[in-house]
Amino acid sequence: MGLLDLTAVELAGQIKSGKTTAVEAMEAVIANIDSKEEELNCYVTFDREAALSAAKEAQKKIEAGELTGPLAGVPIAIKDNMCTEGVLTTCSSKILGNFIPQFSSEAVKRIEEAGAVVIGKTNMDEFAMGSTTETSAYGPTKNPWNTEHVPGGSSGGSAAAVAANECFCALGSDTGGSIRQPASYCGVVGMKPTYGTVSRYGLIAYGSSLDQIGPLCKDVTDCATIMEVIASHDKKDSTSVERKDTDFTSALVDDVAGMRIGIPRDYFGEGLDPQVKEAVLSAAEVLKSKGAIVEEFDLSLVEYAIPTYYTIAAAEASSNLERFDGVKYGFRAKDYDGLHSMYKKTRSEGFGPEVKRRIMLGSFVLSSGYYDAYYLKALRVKAMIKKAFDEAFAKYDVILGPVAPTTAPKLGSSLADPIKMYLGDIYTISVNLAGLPGISVPCGKDDNGLPIGVQLIGDCFNEKKLIQTAYAYEQARGKFE
Amino acid sequence: MSKQYETVIGLEVHVELATKTKIFCGCSTAFGGAPNTHTCPVCTGMPGSLPVLNKQVVEYAAAVGLATNCSITQHCKFDRKNYFYPDNPQNYQISQLYLPICRNGHVDIKLEDGTEKAIRIHEIHMEEDAGKLVHDDWEDVSYVDYNRSGVPLIEIVSEPDMRSAEEVIAYLEKLRLIIQYLGASDCKLQEGSMRADVNLSVREVGSTEFGTRTETKNLNSFSAISRAIEAERDRQIDLIESGEAVIQETRRWDDNKAYSYAMRSKEDAQDYRYFPDPDLVPLNISDEWLGEIRSCQPEFKTEKMARYATEYGIPEYDINLITDSKKLADIFEATTSLCNQPKKVSNWILGETMRILKDKDMEPEDITFSPENLAKLIKLVEAGTINGSVAKDIFAVIFDEDVDPEAYVKEKGLAQVSDEGELRSVVEKVIADNPQSVEDYRNGKDKAIGFLVGQTMKAMKGKANPGLVNKILKELL
Amino acid sequence: MANVIDDATIDYVGILAKLELSDEEKEQAKKDMASMLDYIDQLNELDTTGVEPMSHVFPIENVMREDVVTNGDESEKTLFNAPERKDKTFVVPKTVE
């Protein structure tokens, strides 16, 4: 077994015991990037010299006993919507094509404090708006399992980099499924934590009430370990929640006896690919055979999640993205006539079509005369969706279902029909609306060899039940290859 | 003018709160400083930055609400007001639309003719200030400085209850007094820590419906406000008289030209797309917290006046003027507690202090001298160490530099000369040198003694004890 | 009921959002927005009477900081990414006529 086949936690163990070094690990990753990156395009920014010297620095500190965190020496990739001090951060947009933040996001700081070494910044859908990583201004990322297919999105670069061993683990962000769906498409583990668990400080906002940072990684153990590192109560983020139960690795227990698992019938209806259905239900069978109590139920309101989400996310995005105006940072158009012309040209040239589409929609639903009918209506439906989940979690510890209706679509097949693309988010989106944690774990492959993920959804602050269930499943499943 | 018109005015008053830091970040609110030196990712709208509310802002806003008889919205929220402008780094301003912190208040004003009137307050909300734009004289560019961006403001929105410039000024003075007493702001119009936008419409006397209103901005003094109100009233009446319609618009007042012009732009849709800011959580001002804020309310003018009358026994005229300014009242109380001479302190405040303020076009809030030094000065006069005219000279220095008068008197050798022997020899010389005046005095011209006193003081460089000089002169003559 | 987005609406939203669309983009935007709104109109099938709009999923309140200065002079960081600067200011097209 080569160095690259190790999980992040295994690698950290080997570095700690002196079997290998952070530098060797980084060199292995770089060599792999050199051979694969041209085809896959996982990274927007990858500075080999910087990565290597950071790894050397880390190794020195490890040897001096100064760097002892659980990820000491482990190369990690960061989605390009998280600010990294002194390192280009573009959100895969032209409008931030030259933006070098002067501070690091809280999650990145914590991951570095735990010893991880940042390799580079991964590709994504522009401003995290998309499900395929094709809306990136820097070209699409390709699915390592089959390069004719997308890796999913918006954290497609992070998911593909983990799957292709172009890193040992990665951070992504999830506003409507942007960690879980690419994790599913790329056959890796991805978790979206309970809203407020990971600080959003330094995460370039898309939908502020929905965004959460989370890990994409090789297995559930890595996931729990990274979660433990990045979860924090941050006074710089007013929506950050103070939690005492963030010892997530304590939930790595191979036991689901008595775990109550609900399968929402409404997640298995029309539109779900039969192969995905079969793989997901067989994962449920595995858990049942290990003693979980599995039953079907009706969640309700599932079809309303998407219109609710697109109203709220577009509204928040239209406001969040107003700051990109050519005044303080980023791209400014060349030829303009006066202030408003500068604004319009900068934004029209700087943003791609999908971002413009959502900004336009968001501006419209907030505009005079439409606020109540669209925005407030969506916030009311959001309350109803949250209530439906509350009722479900009165009966179940975990909800189990698919992550996405299909496996990864072919490149170039999704963007033409936005609504069809948005429908792909149907199983992930309501989790964000209700602020819940969700995890995607590989559970099979379709006839084309493309990975399928099973999604486990927990009640707020119940990541541990998800981790326990996912871990138990993973133990039964064996290595995913 | 054949018809009789009535002016209807409502005000939107912005007040910069006296917090040490900005409303959503730990940057200083201090005035001055090179551009952008009081900035951070939050107040410059850097991607990824997030706001965290300054608790003191809530307490000041609620305190102003309580002092203006508002009901406090115990469950309130912040909303985003979206509009593009370079002084607004996020291109949205964090403000409050749906649930402002205070509502339904009023303040009572008193007019020159003694009439009293209540001006209702519709709401008070918290928001962030914008940065500063400086325009280049030659090139088509402006320069942006975000030092003021994020400085906390409250906006006090009145009902359209005012009918004249006099009422407007009385209302503003009352608001300013209340806010200064609370210590929530220094309320300086010139420096922009208090700004008033005037919403004005006219209607025929007797009409119960409001006319179309305009909003006039950029009013930097009470006199500018008065002039702008009169000009806008006249402008609207002229339009109506000539059969034209008043357009609802925002106008900018140019006080030099005594003219306002419309701030219209096709790029200015005035559709702010307010929605609750998802980056900030709701505020819940508990009964307990509100009780604490209430218990910190200071003694306001009315109570202070009553107390001064019994405690200090100074004339009502003095009390009224001193309590018209929190700053003056503070100086009065602190100085009196040090020297125990309330009338003397009052005289210094209402005399020399007010005179210098007027000469220098300053407001009481600009005063920087300490009560300790004024008290020492009063004691020096009482003890006869210095005479009155020297004291006035020293006070001017205290006013400017807050010097310690005891040290200053010593350093400059200004102590009053009360040594009878020394004075007598000077007076003898003055008498010898001025035979004509002596002659005049002896011939019954009482005024002539004044000249002789003056000559003595001059010879003594102003330091002679004037009572003693008079006495010696009379003896010798 | 199908939504129809006219030119005036698209132009108006363009002013609000500070986006300038080519004629071709405008036609596409009209179609996209109309179909999105049709889709969103599904929400009207739900009776939300008496349901409070939910902005935040958790009842967190009163997150505040003390009024203490924590930041020093960060002007160089603030200006680091300025597309155009002069001395310590950002330069923008003139904002007054």
Automatic annotation (TrEMBL), chain A:
Where is the region Disordered?
A: 132-155
**TM region positions:** none
Q: One GO molecular function term?
A: glutaminyl-tRNA synthase (glutamine-hydrolyzing) activity
Q: What is its EC number?
A: 6.3.5.7
Keywords attached to this entry? ATP-binding, Ligase, Nucleotide-binding, Protein biosynthesis
Q: Which reaction does it catalyse?
A: L-glutamyl-tRNA(Gln) + L-glutamine + ATP + H2O = L-glutaminyl-tRNA(Gln) + L-glutamate + ADP + phosphate + H(+)
Active-site residues, Swiss-Prot/TrEMBL: K79 (charge relay system), S154 (charge relay system), S178 (acyl-ester intermediate)
Q: What residues does the Amidase domain cover?
A: 24-466
What segments bear the compositional bias annotation Polar residues? 132-146
Lineage: superkingdom: Bacteria
What assembly does the database describe for this protein? Answer: Heterotrimer of A, B and C subunits.
Regarding protein family, the annotation reads: Belongs to the amidase family. GatA subfamily.
| Function recorded in the entry | Allows the formation of correctly charged Gln-tRNA(Gln) through the transamidation of misacylated Glu-tRNA(Gln) in organisms which lack glutaminyl-tRNA synthetase. The reaction takes place in the presence of glutamine and ATP through an activated gamma-phospho-Glu-tRNA(Gln).
Name-wise, this protein is Glutamyl-tRNA(Gln) amidotransferase subunit A
From TrEMBL, chain B:
Q: Which reaction does it catalyse?
A: L-glutamyl-tRNA(Gln) + L-glutamine + ATP + H2O = L-glutaminyl-tRNA(Gln) + L-glutamate + ADP + phosphate + H(+); L-aspartyl-tRNA(Asn) + L-glutamine + ATP + H2O = L-asparaginyl-tRNA(Asn) + L-glutamate + ADP + phosphate + 2 H(+)
Q: Which Pfam families match?
A: GatB_N (PF02934), GatB_Yqey (PF02637)
The Asn/Gln amidotransferase domain is annotated at 330-477
Q: Which SUPFAM superfamilies match?
A: GatB/YqeY motif, Glutamine synthetase/guanido kinase
On the tree of life, the source organism's domain of life is Bacteria
Self-association state and partner proteins as the record states = Heterotrimer of A, B and C subunits.
State the similarity comment: Belongs to the GatB/GatE family. GatB subfamily.
Any idea what this protein is called?
A: Aspartyl/glutamyl-tRNA(Asn/Gln) amidotransferase subunit B
| The species this protein was found in | Lachnospira hominis
Gene designation per UniProt: gatB
From TrEMBL, chain C:
Q: Which organism is it from?
A: Lachnospira hominis
| EC category name | ligase
Q: Superkingdom of the source?
A: Bacteria
Query: What is the designated name of this protein?
Result: Aspartyl/glutamyl-tRNA(Asn/Gln) amidotransferase subunit C
HAMAP family per record: GatC (MF_00122)
Catalytic reaction equation(s): L-glutamyl-tRNA(Gln) + L-glutamine + ATP + H2O = L-glutaminyl-tRNA(Gln) + L-glutamate + ADP + phosphate + H(+); L-aspartyl-tRNA(Asn) + L-glutamine + ATP + H2O = L-asparaginyl-tRNA(Asn) + L-glutamate + ADP + phosphate + 2 H(+)
How it assembles, according to the record, is: Heterotrimer of A, B and C subunits.
The EC code for this enzyme is: 6.3.5.-
Keyword annotations of the record: ATP-binding, Ligase, Nucleotide-binding, Protein biosynthesis
Q: What does this protein do?
A: Allows the formation of correctly charged Asn-tRNA(Asn) or Gln-tRNA(Gln) through the transamidation of misacylated Asp-tRNA(Asn) or Glu-tRNA(Gln) in organisms which lack either or both of asparaginyl-tRNA or glutaminyl-tRNA synthetases. The reaction takes place in the presence of glutamine and ATP through an activated phospho-Asp-tRNA(Asn) or phospho-Glu-tRNA(Gln).
Family of this protein: Belongs to the GatC family.
InterPro entries attached here? Asp/Glu-ADT_sf_sub_c, GatC
